[in-house]
Amino acid sequence: QVQLVESGGGLVQPGSSLRLSCAASGFTFSRSDMSWLRQAPGQGLEWVSNIDYSGRSATYADAVKGRFSISRDNTKNMLYLQMTSVKSEDTAVYYCAKGWGGSSGRGQGTQVTVSS
Length: 116
Prior knowledge:
The chain is mainly β. It has no helices and ten strands.
């Protein structure tokens, strides 16, 4: 049973940094591509970033490219999203998800609010 638990969200000011974490269990994490998704208030689910099972390949949505960085630690079954230079439009619930594109299950999410 896939279990994904996100943490690290909160209220931050525009221009600051934040790191989200995701603890994975119930599947072979080191063999699974992983993703981050987000959902802004009143909007649909949006793909943010993918990372392959090895951590050697990652892709990003244009909206976050150059500001966000996805990484993983396969020894700890952990996925991360380093967010820098955050903007008000980054306000959303962020979800950790299994699979390339996040189609194989996601966690309960962590709220990120960017506001001055």
